[in-house]
Structures are given as structure tokens and as C-alpha cells.
Write a structure and sequence with these properties.
Helix content is 28%, strand content 26%.
Length: 444
């Protein structure tokens, strides 16, 4: 993976992280070969970020703790007024830090990215089984190879194409430059290991499910995803596939800049009551939601919901959806949850058909450690799915831990993060569509 840099501060210097202070870093590099231009961020914003580590002082005797350090003047250290000012200074710095972080989050959506070096490797994710998409995927692969890139595709794509009425096998080999090594094949093992470091960006050809699958492939660092709309809904796929050549040329053009939507993910860990179980401790990174439901059982799900080890409530419902802001427009929306902007870092808790009139959906801070437990006295077991896949059976005493992941999913914006999101609400979900009220005609 190439590293990020801040051209305004030092155009030629590359750094692994955008550091705002010795203790606070903005972001791990989410993609290969990208540089963080941050043109809208002024140098003054950095001054809003402060260190706020409190001194390691025991409450019982703070003076003795300070005097235990060499070189401390006893009389000056014992001054209550100096101690009070020092503590007030820490509180002020913490308040300024909070303001600075809010300002930083506001500017993140306006941050532009540019290539540090020319991209070399592209991975194509395509919805299999559709002959038109198979043909399109190979056409795009050939186009990228002619531009000098190494392209990774699913091996079944080529196998499906060979079964169709098309050119001879040798013509396909020449067309795609298979013999030169420019066309490679990927599998889930490659993406889960070296692929996250080698791939510069991903082309998603399909619908929202294809984007989710592309993110699922990279369970650690995820390369930037360029989503083209070839599906049914298209809330996450903001690019028109008819303009694919233009979009790709704009991405690869030297000196071009682009905006990224850094989408929050959850890290979900299975905890078994039987510690010797094979999948105890297994973790999965999800972009949309994790759903705990009753499965085929005729009984209500009885689940215990915890936040930061504190019991929040007992859930008696068909299930529970824990969604990211990106997933707020998916299953959580169908269950009555709130629609949340992807720039908001939050954990959405939405019950599925709760057997009560008072259980409303909740939005929790992303700093909370959420756990869903199947209690020992539950009449039935439960099932959990991660982004609609990898369904797992939970027995009494088993639980799922959900925390904010350190590996977000960067997706390319068509315009800006907010513009794309509101446009998706209107075009895909018909948000607040209504005929405009007619103007009253006044009598003259």
C-alpha cells in the first residue's frame, strides 16, 4: 500500500497517517497509492486539536504522587491554586478538542484525494449469472488492460463467457492478453490476505449487494470501491454504467482529484458459552447490518442487550437489527429505524416486530461496546447473519459483540457525500415525494 501525504504542508513528503497532533491521528490510509490533499483544511484547524492526557495522580494523595518524581519543587507542587489551574486547563483543552473534532468531521466530506503514483492493479467484482454483466466485465477488463493496468476478475466470469456464443478461445486470449499476465484471477483467500495491500481500487458492477460483497471480501483494509449501477435499487451505486469509460479516464487522469465517502463498518465477534467451540472468537467486518432473529422457531426471540457491559434492556421480538449509518436505509429502515447520514458515526439498534408499544429504535454512539446475548432461560435459540450472509446459529449463553471497526470502506463519490446521499433518498426511496400545494387564488 502506498502512503498518504499532505501536499499543502509538504508536497513531496509522504507519511503513513495524517497526524493532527502527537496523540491524535485522523485516519489510517484506506487505499493504495492515494494522497490526502485536504485542500479545504486550513492550517488553523490543526491548532484546534489538543492533547488531553490527564496526569497519573492518585486521588487520595496527589501531592505525594507529584513529589515522587525527581526534580519537583515541593513548595510549588503543593500549591492548591496551581493544581486547580492545571486541572481547569485540562478541561479547557478537552473542550477545544471536542470542537476541533467536530470541525474536522465537517471538513472530511470536502477532502479531495489524488494519486501519488499511477495505479497498477484493479479488481472487478461482478454479479455472476447474468450474461450481459459477464460480457460487460470482460469488455471493461480489456479496456483497462489496454490502459496498461493489471486486472483481476472472478475465474467463473471467463468460464461463463466461454460457454456463450462468442469469439474463439484464442481470440479471447489475445483480446485480454492472458498470455502476458495482465489478466489475473482472484478468490476470497487472495482478497483476505495480500489483495488488500496490492489492489489499488475495485470496480463494482452490479447493485448494492455487489458493493456489500466487495466490502465483505476485504475483511481488513479495503481498497476504494467505484460502484457502477447495474442492479435494482442503486442506493450505493452512484455511477452510471453507460459512462464507465469517462469515469475510469477521470480516475486515472494525472493530477485529477476525487472525493471519498469513508463508510463506517462494524467488527462483530462471536462469543460462545462453550469456549472450545471452533468458531468462538471469530470476527467479521460488516458494512450494512448484523441481524439477530428467531429463525425457524415459533417463539419470540428473547435477547439481552448490553452496552459497555451494562444491561440496557431485554428484547422480546422477532429479532434485532444492529445497523451502521450506511445500513440505515436497508433492513433497519424496513423495521422502522431512523435514516442516518453516513457521515454520522453511530450504532443503530432497531427491534423487529417487538411485542411492546414502547420499544423504539435507538441511535447509540459509535464508542459503545454493544453485546446481544441469548439468555440461559430463553425458550428458543437465535440466528445471526452478517450483511445478509454467513448465517450462524446461537444457542443459550452465546452472544455477539458489536464495536466500531478500525477499517472503514472508502467508496468514490459522484459529487459529494451529502449530495449523493440525498439524491439516493429521492431517486431510490422516493423520500418526501408529494405534489406541490397549489397557490391560493385571491379575489381581486
Amino acid at each position: 500500500m502506498e502512503q498518504l501525504m499532505t501536499p499543502k504542508a509538504s508536497p513531496k513528503k509522504q507519511i503513513s497517517q495524517v497526524t493532527l497532533s502527537p496523540k491524535i491521528t485522523l485516519l489510517n490510509p484506506p487505499s493504495a497509492n492515494f494522497a490526502n490533499v485536504i485542500s479545504p483544511l486550513s492550517s488553523g484547524l490543526t491548532n484546534l486539536i489538543y492533547e488531553f492526557e490527564m496526569p497519573d495522580v492518585k486521588e487520595t494523595n496527589p501531592v505525594d504522587a507529584l513529589l515522587s518524581k525527581p526534580g519537583i519543587n515541593r513548595k510549588r507542587s503543593c500549591s492548591p491554586s496551581r493544581t486547580h489551574k492545571r486541572r481547569m486547563s485540562h478541561h479547557a483543552n478537552m473542550a477545544k478538542t471536542a470542537v476541533g473534532l467536530r470541525q474536522l468531521a465537517k471538513k472530511m466530506g470536502e477532502t479531495e484525494l489524488a494519486w501519488v503514483a499511477k495505479p497498477n492493479k484493479v479488481l472487478i467484482v461482478c454479479k455472476l449469472g447474468d450474461p450481459s454483466l459477464v460480457q460487460l466485465a470482460l469488455d471493461v477488463a480489456a479496456f483497462l488492460i489496454r490502459l496498461g493496468l493489471t486486472v483481476y476478475i472472478q475465474e467463473p466470469i471467463l468460464a461463463d463467457y466461454l460457454k456463450m456464443d462468442g469469439p474463439h478461445t484464442q481470440e479471447i486470449t489475445n483480446h485480454l492478453h492472458i498470455s502476458t499476465g495482465k489478466l489475473q484471477f482472484w478468490d476470497e483467500v487472495y482478497c483476505a490476505t495480500v489483495g488488500s495491500e496490492e489492489i489499488d481500487f475495485v470496480l463494482s458492477l452490479g447493485g448494492d449487494g455487489t458493493v456489500l460483497f466487495a466490502a465483505w471480501l476485504f475483511q481488513t483494509k479495503c481498497p476504494p470501491i467505484v460502484p457502477f449501477n447495474l442492479g435494482s435499487l442503486g442506493f450505493l451505486t452512484v455511477f452510471d454504467h453507460l459512462k464507465m469509460d469517462t469515469v475510469i479516464h477521470n480516475i486515472l487522469k494525472p493530477g485529477s482529484t476525487m472525493r471519498m465517502n469513508i463508510r463506517m463498518r462494524f467488527k462483530c465477534t462471536i462469543h460462545r458459552a462453550d469456549f472450545t467451540a471452533a468458531d468462538n472468537g471469530n470476527s467479521y467486518q460488516i458494512l450494512n447490518d448484523v441481524c439477530v432473529d428467531r429463525g425457524p422457531s415459533p417463539f419470540l426471540s428473547q435477547l439481552e442487550l448490553y452496552g459497555n457491559s451494562s444491561h440496557l434492556t431485554t428484547v422480546q421480538a422477532d429479532g434485532l437489527v444492529i445497523a451502521t449509518p450506511t445500513g440505515s436505509t436497508a433492513y433497519s429502515l424496513s423495521a422502522g429505524g431512523s435514516v442516518v447520514h453516513p457521515d454520522v458515526s453511530a450504532i443503530l439498534v432497531t427491534p423487529i416486530c417487538p411485542h411492546t408499544l414502547s420499544f423504539r429504535p435507538m441511535i447509540l454512539p459509535d464508542t459503545m461496546d454493544v453485546r446481544v446475548l441469548v439468555p440461559e432461560d430463553s425458550r428458543s435459540t437465535a440466528w445471526v447473519s452478517f450483511d445478509g450472509r454467513h448465517r450462524v446459529h446461537l444457542k443459550a449463553g452465546d452472544s455477539i459483540q458489536i464495536v466500531a471497526s478500525q477499517d472503514p470502506v472508502p467508496t468514490l463519490c459522484l459529487v459529494r457525500q451529502s449530495d449523493d446521499w440525498f439524491n439516493g433518498l429521492e431517486t431510490c426511496l422516493a423520500w418526501n415525494k408529494r405534489s406541490r400545494q397549489k397557490v391560493l387564488e385571491t379575489k381581486k
